[in-house]
Structures are given as C-alpha cells and as structure tokens.
Design brief:
The protein is mainly α. It is built from four helices and no strands. Helix content is 79%, strand content 0%. The protein starts with 19 loop residues before the first helix and ends with a helix.
C-alpha cells in the first residue's frame, strides 16, 4: 500500500508495531500530502501558463505599439506587463491619434512644399521671361544707340570734312585773290629781272686768266639773275 507513495521514507517508521488505526492514519496523511503536491503542481503549471500568456500578450502589445514608441509618440514605460486591456487600448488610441496627427502634418507640409515649389517654378519662369524681354529690349536699345552714334559720327565727320573743304576753298580763294592782286606787280618785276643782260666780249685774244675772269663774271651774273627771280617769287 505504501508503494503508492514513493516519496515516503519508511526507514524510521515503526510499521511492525503500528496499529491498523495508526497505519490508516498514515496512509490518509500520505494521500492528502500527495493530493496537495498534485494540486500545488497544477497551480504552479497554471501560474506558469498564465505568466507565459501574460508575457506573450505583453510582447504582442509592445510590437503593436512599437512604432509609436520608436517615434516618441508614447513613453515605453507607460506600457507594463500588468497593463489592463483598457489601459492598453487607451495607449493605442493615443498613439494612433499622434501618429495620424504626425502624418497629417507631413502631408500638409508636403502639399505646402509642392505649392511653394510650383510658385517658385512659376516665378522663375516669369523672371526668365522678363529677363529675356529685358535683354531683347536692351539689345534693341543698344542697336539704336549704336546706329544713332554712328549717324552722329558720320554727320560730324561730314561736317568736319565739309568745313575743312570750305576752309581750304576759302583759303585757296583768298590766296588766288591775293596772287591775282599781286599779279601785275609780279609780272612787271619778272619782266624787269628777265631784262637783265650782260654784254658779250670776244675772249679769243684774252689770256687764260682773262677768259677765266669773264666766265666767272658771267656765272656770277646768271646766279644773281636766278636769285633775283627767287626774290620776286617770294613776294607771293
């Protein structure tokens, strides 16, 4: 009978002298003890399963709220293994709300950035268009200015040439008039100088020295006559 209780140490039990009543009490005690151990083991198993389920639920909740923790929408310490379903659902609602608010801000910023980019592109196109028109107008103005300056330079040159020509013609006219006024006098003086003559002499009977003297005098006379003509000319 006692073999049913392997944990019972019978070494020091006085089984031979034990009465039937005492033996039955021992058996009942061992039965109660064995039953208590079974119940304790069952409780421990139930507790282990309960704790495992609680840990698994906690892990699942952490995974479900993980992105909210990662983005600092929730404090990791706000979720514990002991958190109730109501507390978890409240945290989940807060995380979803903040996540949605965050995404709404991002979307609003994206839309705003797109709007600003479009406005900037339109402004750049308008600026480029205005710049192109400005350059075109500037080129036209530069060409007109260049043409005007060329025309002014041309007219100035023509005026200077005309004035120079008129001045030269006036000077030439004055010179011609001056010469014309002096022409009778010049002609008279010229005729007078041309009338200068030296008498001839027969040098056949003269000595060489006499001939040389005659030649020198004649040369001097001709040189004097040329000098006289030059003086008349210089009167102009």
């Amino acid at each position: 009978m006692l073999t049913l209780f392997p944990d019972l140490d019978t070494t020091y039990l006085p089984l031979e002298t034990m009465s039937d009543e005492q033996f039955e009490t021992l058996v009942k005690d061992q039965q109660l003890l064995a039953q208590a151990k079974i119940e304790q083991a069952q409780k421990e198993e139930e507790l282990r399963k309960f704790n495992e389920a609680k840990q698994a639920r906690y892990n699942e909740r952490q995974a479900e709220l993980g992105r909210y923790f990662a983005m600092d929408f929730l404090d990791r310490k706000s979720l514990t293994i002991e958190s109730t379903d109501q507390e978890f659902n409240q945290l989940k609602e807060i995380g979803e709300s903040r996540f949605k608010e965050h995404n709404d801000k991002i979307e609003a910023q994206r839309i705003e950035n797109a709007r600003l980019l479009q406005e900037r592109e339109i402004a750049q196109k308008e600026a480029a268009k205005h710049e192109a028109l400005r350059k075109l107008e500037q080129e036209k103005a530069d060409k007109l200015t260049e043409a005007k300056n060329k025309e002014i330079a041309k007219l100035k040159k023509e005026k200077e040439e005309r004035e120079a020509k008129e001045k030269a013609e006036a000077k030439a006219k004055l010179e011609a008039e001056r010469k014309a006024a002096k022409l009778p006098e010049l002609e008279k003086l010229t005729n007078w100088v041309n009338s200068f003559e030296i008498s001839t002499i027969d040098t056949s009977k003269l000595s060489e020295a006499g001939k040389a003297t005659v030649n020198l005098v004649q040369a001097k006379f001709e040189a004097f006559k040329d000098w006289a003509k030059l003086q008349v000319i210089n009167l102009e």
